[in-house]
What we know:
It contains 6 helices and no strands. Helix 1 packs parallel to helix 5, helix 2 runs antiparallel to helix 3 and helix 4 packs antiparallel against helix 5. It is globular.
Amino acid sequence: MNAALIGTSSGLAIILLFTLLKKFDKKIIYGLILACIGFLYVGYTWSDVTLFIINCLQAAFFLFFAYFGITRSINFLIAGYFLHGAWDFLFSYFVSTPLMPPHYDWFCLTIDWVISFYLLMIKNQLKGDSNT
């Protein structure tokens, strides 16, 4: 359960940081984070060809969610973070590999869903303000 607490507090810390740094475009920041987190799996699984291919596809999938979240609608970012959290959790149940850090599933699930919930809450703010 420590991993979930650390994930939740990390998600809240990210939100607080970019709330205080008002000059940053939130859609771009959260889109960049979403684009990057999928590629962590590629780095963790590069030594297993099958997992590497699966995770390259997963990373590309979330890269497109990030791109469309930045360019089209915040709803893609919200869905992307929610789906990535589900991916984090389900990946460890369908694939048993020592390549992933311990308790990574709970950490990532909570951080992704905290950010997804936050973006859902401020969705209307992000639509109208190009500086957030």
